[in-house]
Amino acid sequence: MDKFQEAICAFANDLPNSRKKGYLILGAYDNGTLSGLKVTDDLLKKIAAIRSNGNILPIPVMSVESFQFPEGDLLVAEVSPSDLPPVRYRGRSFIRIGPRRDIATEAEERILAERRMSFMATFDTTPCFSAKLGDINTDLLRPKYLEPLLGKEVVATDNRSIEEQMAAVGMYDTEHQSPTYAAVALFGYKPRRFMPGLYVQYVRFLGEDVTSEVENELQLDGNYCELLPRLESLLELSVIKKKPVFVSVLREEMINNYPYYAIRELLLNACMHRDLQSNTPLRFYEFASHLEILNAGGLYGNARPENFPRVNDYRNPLIASAMKTMGYVNMFNRGVGQVQTDLKENGNPPAKFDVSLITAFRVDVKSVASKNSSSYPISTHDVGDDVGDRVGDDVVDDIRNVVKAYSSQLSERQITVIELMVLNPFISAREMSLKLSMTSRTIERDIAKIKKLGIVEREGDDHGGTWKVLVPHKGK
Question: I need a labelling partner for 78 at 20 to 30 A (CA). Which of 96, 106, 182, 318 fits?
Fold first, then answer.
C-alpha cells in the first residue's frame, strides 16, 4: 500500500506540468499480460480509501474502477493533476521522474509551490463555462477597454482573432473556449444569467429605516459598462440635491446634501469589490437623513478590521484593473481617505464603515442637516427676524439682489460692511472696524468703493448721519 500511495501522490504533483491524468493499474505485469488478480469489493474499497485516509494531503482527485477479463481482473485508479501542489504522502512530496517515482528535492518543491500560487486564480479570472463568445458585447469591449489599454493603433493592426485578443488581457480562456467572469461582468449582454446577484437595488425611504414608507424603487442591472454610467446619472439626478442656505441677510450659499464624488467613490468601490458569486445585490438605500450601501463580500485578503482602511486588497483584480483603465477608479488606496475629506468639506459627518460583517460590507453616510457659516462675525441670529420689520421684507430682498448684482466687484468683507449698514444705519466706520477686527482706514477704503459703485450713500454728517442702501424703485 505504501508504494501505491506514493504513486498516487506523484501523479497528483505532475511535476512536468503535462496536465495529463495518471493511472495506477493493479492486476497486470509490465509486459501487459494479466496476472489473474481477482478484484474483490474489499480490495476496491481499500484502494478507494487511499483518497481520504489522511495520509495524502491535500486530498487528491481520483476515481477507482474494476474491469473483468477471462484471464483476470484489473483495478484502475485514475489520478488528476492537483491544482494545489505540492501534494504530500505522510509529509513527503513524491514526483514522477520518467518511468519511476522519487522524493522531491527542495528546488522541485519550490516549483510545485509556485505552481500552486499560479493556479489559485481569483473568481473574476476563472472561465465562465456556461458562457460563450456570443454572450460578450465585443463592440463595447474594443473601444471601452482594449483601445484605452493597448492603444487604437495596436488594436487596429492586431490580426489575431478576438478570442486571442481577449485571452491576452485575461478576458477569455482558450483552453475551455469560454470568456472569464470578468468579461461577462464588464461586457456581457445579460450578465445576470451567469451571476444572479450582479445588480443594484436602489430604494428611497421617507423615514429613517426600512420599515418606513417607500417613495421610490429602482433596479439597475446590465454589464458594468452600462451599469456604472446609470449609477452616476442616478446620483446626479435623484440622490444629490442642492438647496440655498442663508449665510446672512444679504447672502445665501448653495450646498449639497451629499458630496457627489464621495458617494460615487463609495458606489464604484462597492461594484469593484463585491463578491460576484453571491446572489445578494448591491443595496443602495436612501433614507430621510442618511445613505446606506450594503455590499456582498466582507474584507478580503490582507485587509482586516484592525488595519482597514490603511491596507487594501482586491477580490476582483481583473475587474479593478479594467475599471481603472476605463477611468472609474484610481487603485491608489486613497479612496476612503478622500471620501472622508470630501464629506468634511461639504459639512457632512464622517462616513461609518461596518467591517464586522463576515459576508457583507456596509457604509453609512449622514446628510448635511444644516450649514450656517460666515467668514465674519455676523450670523443668522445676529441678523434676526426683526430686520424685515425695520426695513421691510421687500426692501431686504431688493438689497440682496443689488448686492448679488455687484458680487463680482465686492469682496466678502465689503459685503459684510453693507450688511452692518443694513442692520444698523447709524453705525460708524470705527464701530465696523472693531466688529470686523480691521483698521479704520481699511473700512474707510471699503466704504469709499461701495459708495463709488453707487450701492450706499451717507445722509447727514459723519457723527449724526445714517447709511442708506440705494434700492431701485419698482419698474426702474
Answer: 106
